[in-house]
Specification:
The chain is built from 12 helices and 12 strands. It is an alpha/beta fold and 344 residues long. It has a 12-stranded mixed β-sheet with strand order 7-8-9-6-5-4-3-2-1-10-11-12. Strand 3, helix 5 and strand 4 form a beta-alpha-beta unit. It is globular, with a radius of gyration of 20 Å. The structure holds S-adenosylmethionine and iron/sulfur cluster.
């Protein structure tokens, strides 16, 4: 295990319909397409109420720093700060500075929806953040709003530009691809990546949405994404043999600017070489995105456990990491917690 993802808040300023939908109507976006006959009643427009974790349950910066320090002592060297939306956590740049100062942290990154990035960008860079990944599923303002529940496209575009200007590298952009929602934008998104010299990642829609609206029919398989992009662009496979835990199959544009990556956990699982661990904002260790169980580290952290106790607990839990997810198997059960809680 080399890669630790730390969610620092379960809250978000966006309402992506594949993650934290705003209304029942948004949550059930797929039913209009597949279940119209069985569900003739329109879904309610009223907001869905989310019960955010109280502050006292969230890990403090000291606790996060301690977990990261102990984990790096055990061999973790990549750390990604995520959420929810990490920009919403007050003082996030202070946390970045603390994590960047831990000797074993060779690679510190953050995933953000980008809307609030500009205000913090310089402070984050100064604090030692080197890499940032943005999430942007559409280049069309109306479709962006449909997918995220917010009018934030202009701010996200400005955030990406600013990140490049400030020297974050690489700047990655992730798009979740959902059939009939944004798959018509595949080529436009890839072209945006090529023109801006970005690392653009297309991600299959996973069953981690809070509304449990996921259906296999909505997943655009990685192979289909690739075939579409190969029909439009001259793509050269990037050799990733140096990084066996790479989750994306990567392709460079033949004219040398930018690259695309395809992450296909549903249609082509890569569980066998997964080297990731996740900590939720409230201090639960998850050994797989799709784990049905999670392990609370707070009793140790808040109950006088030593660093050696914490290290022993991490080792013990990692030994029981799942062999793989079971999406597509008859016994698959969607985890109770969603991507916004687990940290993507
Ligand atoms: N709020 C930040 C953001 O959106 O970048 C960070 C947290 S978000 C949960 C991390 C990543 O998870 C995003 O790139 C998002 O697109 C992805 N994600 C969320 N729900 C997903 C789902 N059901 N399937 C695939 N990816 C998902
Ligand atoms: Fe928020 Fe990120 Fe989930 Fe969208 S994907 S609702 S931005 S946590």
């Amino acid at each position: 295990m080399r890669d630790l993802r730390v969610s620092i808040t379960d809250r978000c300023n966006f309402r992506c319909l594949y993650c934290l939908p705003e209304t029942e109507e948004a949550a059930n976006f797929y039913r209009a397409k597949f279940d119209a006959l069985r569900n003739p009643q329109p879904f309610a427009l009223r907001p869905i109420r989310y019960d955010w974790k109280p502050r006292s349950e969230l890990l403090t910066f000291e606790e996060i720093e301690r977990i990261v320090r102990v984990a790096t002592g055990l061999g973790v060297h990549k750390v990604r700060i995520t959420g929810g939306e990490p920009m919403l956590r007050h003082g996030v740049e202070t946390l970045v500075a603390r994590l960047a100062a831990i000797p074993g942290v060779e690679d510190l990154a953050m995933t953000t929806n980008g809307q609030l990035f500009a205000a913090k960008a310089e402070a984050l860079r100064a604090a030692g953040l080197r890499r940032v990944s943005f999430s942007m599923d559409s280049l069309d303002p109306a479709n962006f709003r449909k997918l995220t529940g917010r009018d934030g496209l202009a701010e996200v575009l400005a955030g990406i530009e600013l990140a490049q200007r400030l020297g974050f590298h690489p700047v990655k952009v992730n798009a979740v691809v959902i059939r009939d929602l944004n798959d018509h934008e595949l080529e436009a998104l890839a072209e945006f990546g090529r023109q801006r010299n970005l690392s653009f990642r297309f991600i299959e829609f996973m069953p981690l949405d809070s509304s449990r609206a996921w259906q296999r029919e909505l997943v655009v398989p990685g192979r289909e994404i690739l075939a579409r992009l190969q029909a439009r662009f001259d793509l050269r496979a990037v050799d990733a043999s140096g990084n066996p835990a790479e989750t994306a199959r990567r392709w460079a544009f033949a004219d040398g600017r930018g690259e695309i990556g395809i992450i296909a956990p549903v249609s082509e699982p890569f569980c066998g070489h997964c080297n990731r661990l996740r900590i939720t904002a409230d201090g639960k260790l998850r050994t797989c995105l799709f784990s049905l169980g999670e392990h609370d580290l707070r009793p140790l952290l808040r109950g006088g456990g030593t660093d050696a106790d914490l290290a022993a607990r991490l080792v013990e839990l990692v030994a029981h990491k799942e062999a793989g997810h079971r999406i597509g198997q008859p016994d698959f059960v969607q985890p109770a917690r969603t991507m916004s809680c687990i940290g993507g």
